[in-house]
Amino acid sequence: MFTFLLICGGLVGFYLLLYVTVLRQQRCKSTAKLHGKTVIVTGANTGIGKATALDLAKRGARVILACRDESRAQAAVTDIQRESGNKEVLYMHLDLASLKSVRSFAENFLKKESRLDILISNAGLVMGGKTEDGFGRIFGVNHLGHFLLTVLLLERLKECGPSRVVTVSSNAHSWGTIDFNCINTHKDLGLGNSTVALIKLYNNSKLCNVLFTHELAKRLKGTNVTCYSVHPGGIKTEISRHVNLWWRLFAVPLLMLFFSDVESGAQTSLYCALQEGIEPLSGRYFSRCAVQNVSAKAKDDTVAKKLWEVSERLVGLA
User: E-strand spans in 97-186?
Assistant: First the structure.
């Protein structure tokens, strides 16, 4: 019995140490108010996106929930308005798996809204299949849709500067690769629909996010728009809701023990959207509310430039 208690005590102690040093998320300490500012958050009907939108609404921003599912988005609007006391929260339809929808969203937004101060590209998924335009779904939603959205809104961001673009990536980018032959041949970041293959595709898409931000910062030099990519941390979200049952059964215990809540996951996005003084760090990657170093492949100028040019061609901008 004593040995058993000793082992249990050791495991609890190890978990607490892990929580304090690795798992616990830092908090965004900015006290910035956003009255008169307009923010877009993609994928804001649930998870990290909804928590991010709620915080920004509490600060007085006009918050646009850019989402695909209208019923879930309208429910989120009601929740956020009630919790924040801010009625300037609204839904606009955006399906990142459709370039036509992305263009329509941008056109409607630019027609109806006079300002854009912060764009938070938060939406993401792990799901097989193809987009409306024939791209791999993970590639299309996690990278190409947000790429097109950002480019279409850049002029408004410049007009309203200082403004910011925050792209939610992941430390999974560390395991990602960019295969331009596969992109050009198959319109995807890789092949296969198994759970393992989908995770690899997700990793690759998150590397796209970091490289996109790296290149975007170069193209924004001399403007009053800055951009950042972020790792939200290990967070209990619905991102893997489309993977198979056996994977979810395996993942749930790990999520409960080692992953944080969505409010914690929103903190680094909020930090990069609000924190004063980080403008010189435009293009960098952040985690736990602090800038982080990345590997050579995540800041490769040649690959980042080529990815931008290939993405322009794929979405019809070139």
Answer: 118-121, 163-168
Catalytic residue among 202, 228, 271, 285: 202
Q: Which residues pair with 289 in a beta bridge?
A: none
Tokens of 38: 């307009």
C-alpha closest to that of 237 among 224, 222, 252, 249: 252
Question: Which single residue is written with the structure tokens 């459709």?
Answer: 98
Calpha distance 25→225 (Å, rounded): 27
| Active-site residue, 271 included | no
d(CA 308, CA 304): 6
At 188, list the tokens: 């995807």
Q: Distance between CA 271 and CA 191 in Å, rounded?
A: 35
Whether the pLDDT of residue 253 is over 80: the answer is no
Tens-digit pLDDT profile for residues 255-307 = 455 456 889 999 999 999 999 999 999 999 999 999 999 999 999 999 999 99
Residue 233: pLDDT band (50, 70, 90) is: confident
Burial class of residue 292, CB neighbours in 10 A (0-12, 13-18, 19+): middle
| Structure token digits, residue 198 | 């989908």
269 in Cβ contact with 39 (< 8 Å): no
- Contact between 113 and 32 (Cβ < 8 Å): no
φ/ψ of residue 42, rounded to 5: -80, 150
User: Would you give the end-to-end CA distance of the chain in angstroms?
Assistant: 70
The answer to whether 40 and 66 are in contact (CB under 8 A) is yes
